[in-house]
Amino acid sequence: MSTTRHKKRTGRRILATAAGLATAGALVAALPAGAADEQDAGASGWKRGEKVSGRTVDVQLLSFNDLHGNLEPPAGSSGEVSHVHADGTTEKIKAGGVEYLATHLRTARKGHPFSITAAAGDMIGASPLVSGLFHDEPTVEALNKLKLDVSSVGNHEFDEGAAELARIQKGGCHPTDGCAEGTTYEGADFPYLAANVTDEKTGKPILDPYFVWERAGVRIGFVGVTLEGTPNIVNAEGIKGLRFGDEVETINKYTKILEAKGVKSVVALIHEGGAPASSAYNYDCDSPGPGDGISGPIVDIAKRLSPQVDAVVTGHTHQAYACTIADPAGKPRTVTSAASFGKLYTDTTLTYDRATKDIVRTAVASANHVVTRDVAPAPDMTRLIERWKGLAAPIADRPVGHITADIDGRGSTAYEKPLGDLIADAQLEGLAPADKGGAQIAFMNPGGIRSDLVHAKSGAETTDGVVTYGEAYTVQPFTNMMTSVDLTGAQIVTALQQQVSGSNEASPKILQVSRGFTYTLDMTKTGAARVDVSSVRLNGAPLDPAKTYRVAMNEFLSGGGDGFPALAQGKNKLVGASDLDVFIAYLTAHSSAGSPLAPPAADRITVVK
Fold this sequence. Notes:
By secondary structure, this protein is α/β, with parallel strands linked by helices.
């Protein structure tokens, strides 16, 4: 990282590293009023050194979450948001793409001399090829251009491990793939906050736990955390030696530290979220009363966070909401999330009292806004995307298959997804040969399906129905290695029950299954009883509890990820090709321009509601 860039980053923010908490107060006191980025400040109408009058100051907080490296407009349902009209009807609006996100954010900042842009994690990871191929360096470059001030880490920031996350923050060439374009990656201009991710040996956070934004004497602290359950949803190898602490305990701890240093206004950035009763981005989750329209983990977290926290920006669930959930003192507090993939941004007004140095909570107002594509795209972002697309094109544009219609994965709300069946079939076929694993069944985790396969032509495609390598990569971006293991029929049934019980009871994770494997899921019941054990069959025959079966799954599942400890009991593990390789091989083998592949019927799991 160059000296100039380092000075720029230091001047824009006040950091509290684990090693420097004792001196953070001195840093806050020593920073000149208005030492934020002058270029951005000038664009919003405020200049360094300019005095601000009046007791209160309105601070604009722009926020988003779960971008997942979606630089280009997401395809299919992944690039749409639902708008509900007063008469109850809904419409789909095309949204997303950093060219448009940049334009919307820059427009929103105009006339707001005090404006902060923050994010709640998963900026990178599970990204489309144009970013993922280059270890998400293109996305961080885009976020720097967006003038992102701060972000919490999310679980996907750990997809390539803690060491790679440190490189993403600080800069430097990738240890294996080297420097893209022959230039050194310079790192993030914004701090990633990881207050609840600590080194098991030292007990210290692996990245900055908090950040203080300051302009003209207005100081607002940010504490960032990822969900405590991150170890359950990422590959264990990348997070060895790390501890993920309780979100509430961590935020309350650092809120006290900030308050002791004179920072009384605090915003929590939490990569954990909730589920509103409606998927419409403009749904009123405060009807009939405050917070009545939202459920999920964030509700309990918000209710227990210190009253000193003035606003809560969340993520992880890819939902849209701007709700009011009372703090432990009974005061209203805004809790927001801007869906995912850059389709929305949240605009929150924080009224800062210069006398008390705190936010006037009753004056907080927040709303989500659509990143529509009817505005002029930001030229600098267009140039950035075209540059990286050019580098990726030789790989990304290669046709690997053909389809007759959309095959929904991420866009499907059903427990069994057509694309999930297709992926499971590909994994079974790839690992069925005796020398490849001898698989008889394949299971696919639903969270690993990152997009849909879209029939309409896009990019360099000249006809509808073509599936390119880049599109297949977007569906399966993790490059998980496939495994085959021995599991008894009883262990398989236990795994099915774990879909809807234990850590997955409140939010079921239904495994996608290969052809020939069928069973009934009765959602009128509770917990493990939701699985009708007598209905579980393989090729029409009841599953024998005592018999051993060869089961194919990715290494994440075979390690017990997503709350499936039964799958980690597998024996005689054989590692095969990557999930992406077997997916592409299946598409190529089973489709052509003259004989495209039709969407699976998705009729393997009978669901009773």
